[in-house]
């Protein structure tokens, strides 16, 4: 891929992610921000967005290992082929994929590493919504060690763990925290590999798994995940934090939860589940019963409301269309945020053009170009307004309110059992907001 084309894609992708994940922060980018050869190893909760999240913060071109099923669509194949290597999973082969055999994947990846490229790989192999790290496959370790062995251990391959933490992986405009850990140098495993390649691959895979887990909020099962999310939601609504501090507070909350006696933990989780079930039954939101600082009426909320409504009304066609297409196509909810993000690349410019033409038709004496310029500006303003003042409006108009007293009592019991949790990152880890 030519450098100008790469930088155009890099800019567009960064712009897109900045809009759809407006409160994104990073940590440890310096660990990965250097030329290859490198295997950039990330968790995989959000399908096509994950590789972008991992690679877009680096100053060097990243190439990707991608599902061979994507090559079944000729348009998609044309777009991604210059910077992606197909990997055929069993279900891709069943669907008719004729690319991405094991030998092809290994040979093309070795060639990429030998020419100093950065390759993104998802060692879990499959994308799942759970934020825990599932058991990772041995492919990344095998590629790194065999690549070094083929080059007399002088290649300098590193495995770079990256943890992508979405607060809501199925939702556009969710907050995200991308953490890059300490890299692993494959050559340091030379002695063990020469004694037993299989054991070296297994040991390196375990080391990579441990480092990736440390970069995530890693829950062990669905019951623990549900309990943690319910408690975390209420704490965050009472004491909202930036995405990085929220991440560390959640990790500390999980550690505390695991240290509780089994009886106390089960009792607390049952209480949180009862509260959550009643919220769902009444159609209400936890923020309505919280002490969120934005729950109060303010001058800024009122003065900026007309501008928000202008942006919202002008973007209703996009909101309705993108939702309608997603439902009509029957796309799994795991792909929802990715689909909405990528499809908006094409839909928004078309809708802006159509709306401007209609505006000129209705108001021929007006300056349509001013209206066109107002569309993206008003859209960004409406997004910022909603992110800022959502606690007020969402709490004010949610549910039927028939069980308010019961909900307040359940929430109070739950919150009284929680201590204050530390939320600061270790001194050596400074998170960086993306501006």
Sum this structure up briefly.
The protein is an alpha/beta fold and 435 residues long.
What features would you describe in this structure?
It is a single chain. This protein is an alpha/beta fold and 435 residues long. The protein folds into three domains: 3-218, Glycerol-3-phosphate (1)-acyltransferase; 230-284 and 402-435, no CATH class; 303-398, no CATH class. Helices cover 55% and strands 9% of the residues. It has 16 helices and nine strands. Strands 1, 2, 3, 4, 5, 6, 7, 8 and 9 form a nine-stranded mixed sheet that branches. The radius of gyration is 24 Å and the shape is globular. It starts with a helix and ends with a strand.
Give a quick account of the main beta sheet: strands, pairing sense, barrel closure.
9 strands, mixed
User: Helix count, per DSSP?
Assistant: 16
What is the count of β-strands? 9
Mean pLDDT value: 86
- At the fourth CATH level, what is the homologous superfamily of the largest domain? Glycerol-3-phosphate (1)-acyltransferase
What structural class do the secondary elements suggest? alpha/beta
**CATH fold label of the largest domain:** Glycerol-3-phosphate (1)-acyltransferase
- The rounded Rg comes to 24 Å
Please give the alpha-carbon distance between the first and last residues: 27 Å
Number of domains: 3
Helix content: 55-70%
Q: Give the oligomeric state.
A: single chain
Q: How much of the residues is beta strand, in percent? A: 5-15%
Series of secondary-structure elements, N-terminal to C-terminal: HEEHEHEHHEHEEEHHHHHHHHHHE
CATH architect. name of the largest domain: 3-Layer(aba) Sandwich
